[in-house]
Amino acid sequence: MVALGLFIATNAGAASMQKVNQTDWWAGASGLPSYVNMYTYVPAQLATKPPIVVAPHHCQGTAQSTYSEMSTLVSIADKTGFILIFPEATGENCWDAGSTRSLTHGGGGDTGAVVQMVKYTISKYGADASRVYSVGGSSGGIMTEALLGVYPDVFMAGVSLMGVPCGCWAAGYNDVTGNGSTAQWSGSCADGSVTKTGQAWGDLVRSYYPGYTGHRPRLQHWHGTADTTLNFKNLAEDVKEWTNLLGLSETPTGSDMPKSGTTHQFWKNACGYTVYETFALSGVAHAVAFDGNAVAAYFGLDTASAADPETVACGMGGMGGMGGTGAGGNGLGGMAGRSAGDGGGVGPSGGRAGAGTGAGGLPGASGTNNAGGAVSGAAGSGAGHAGGGGTAEMAGSGGMPPASGGGKPSAGAPSQAGVVGTVDGATGGQPGVGGAMSPGGSAPTSGTSGGVKPANGADGGGCGCVAGGSAGGMSHAAAALAFAALAAARWRRRKVPSS
């Protein structure tokens, strides 16, 4: 009941798409293209912690045309309370997904401008930084794949209609603006002549954010076999790229035909969740239809769920934190399940300290996976000094707490987090709700505000796919209730767009 009670009234009137003043959403950022403008749709009944969907337009499109084309998705937002961002490359032909600036994490360009919009929206509306998605067709599909590839720490998933692999658009890219139909175009990528091995594609994308080892977004790609504008051959390259990025075999886990003329291939991760899938529409040209219902279901936004369906199924511990807004500005804290820290981290150890101060870590969608497969808490909300809230590497406003405060649990018992932990005499951030669980069953050892063994004794190794921020520090009944509330979002009937 608590997990699903997500709505608060914001105003009584009907919502509409609104332009956001550029000076507001830039928030002190520099190096962003002045032609990129931000429009948002914020429903009248906004979720308490609303997800965000970014919807970049196709070539020669506008925010208004995309808003109209995605009217079904807008209607769903009215029901479940997520926010839509409609970025617009005003006066330009297509999105810039091929320049060095746009294909560099933190490099500015069109991708950097869209990410700045996301940061602004999270800050203004208290939106869920762990549930940011992108969907678009044609140039919007190209932009979606660029956003997911260059900013994997920001986006959880995307849907690309008639897109191309991230980085493909850089081949022979015509990096000009204000030049009519010849602007922002890559002829060699568009005609399908750019081919690479999966390793080469993966290495290319990884070079856009060197050192990043966190979660990679899942992707759904739709393409018509008769497409000659953005040639269907790009789909095969897309498979090589994303399977490499996601650590999957190029051979699909399975395939089916959800309807006549549509071939669906899918790839599942180690948790058994589909993280990449393609739909090839036989005989369809550059005109794959948009289906708002299918997109909402894929993102888990068709119902008022509290967590992303992949997070519910597998857990997302150890994903890097998101950087702060503006130059040296206030950090937004860690994304749920991605340890807190202003500067943003790149791996399981949590967010690194950055300039300014953050609001503290948001509750983790799941904790880190321990040896026994169980999940420990990952949320921090305290002062964020180096110490019990994390090592100096995890410093920031609310670093990842230790497994059990000052007292380290011995082999195996679930333990309640201590109130304040200490490392080298420095006061740590307040621990999250849970301690660690590991395979054994003995009581935790003593220490400053150490863990307390629950009455039921030890739990052995369990599934690493537990929903929520922690299982270790809860009673068994409370953990079961939290899991049951979130698990309602796990299984959704997949809808298939019409061609």
Into which percentage range does the β-strand content fall? 5-15%
Largest beta sheet, briefly? 10 strands, mixed
- How many β-strand stretches? 15
Shape descriptor reads globular
Radius of gyration: 22 Å
What key phrases describe this protein's structure?
499 residues, alpha/beta, Rossmann fold, ten-stranded mixed sheet, 15 strands, 21% helix, globular, disordered C terminus
Fold blueprint:
Elements: E1 7-9, E2 17-20, H1 22-26, E3 36-41, E4 45-47, E5 52-54, H2 63-69, H3 71-80, E6 83-89, H4 109-125, E7 132-137, H5 139-150, E8 157-161, H6 187-190, H7 198-206, E9 218-224, H8 233-245, E10 254-259, E11 262-268, E12 274-281, H9 292-299, H10 309-314, E13 403-406, E14 422-423, E15 426-427, H11 476-487
Parallel strand pairs: 5-6, 5-7, 7-8, 8-9, 9-12
Antiparallel strand pairs: 1-4, 2-3, 3-6, 10-11, 11-12, 14-15
Describe the protein.
This protein has helices spanning 22-26, 63-69, 71-80, 109-125, 139-150, 187-190, 198-206, 233-245, 292-299, 309-314, 476-487; strands at 7-9, 17-20, 36-41, 45-47, 52-54, 83-89, 132-137, 157-161, 218-224, 254-259, 262-268, 274-281, 403-406, 422-423, 426-427. It has 499 residues and is an alpha/beta fold. The chain has a domain at 7-313: Alpha/Beta hydrolase fold, catalytic domain (Rossmann fold, 3-Layer(aba) Sandwich). The strands form three sheets. Strands 2-3-6-5-7-8-9-12-11-10 form a ten-stranded mixed sheet, sandwiched between helices. Strand 14 (422-423) and strand 15 form a beta hairpin. Helix 3 packs across helix 9 (292-299) and helix 7 (198-206) crosses helix 8. The model is unreliable at 1-13 and 317-499 (pLDDT under 50).
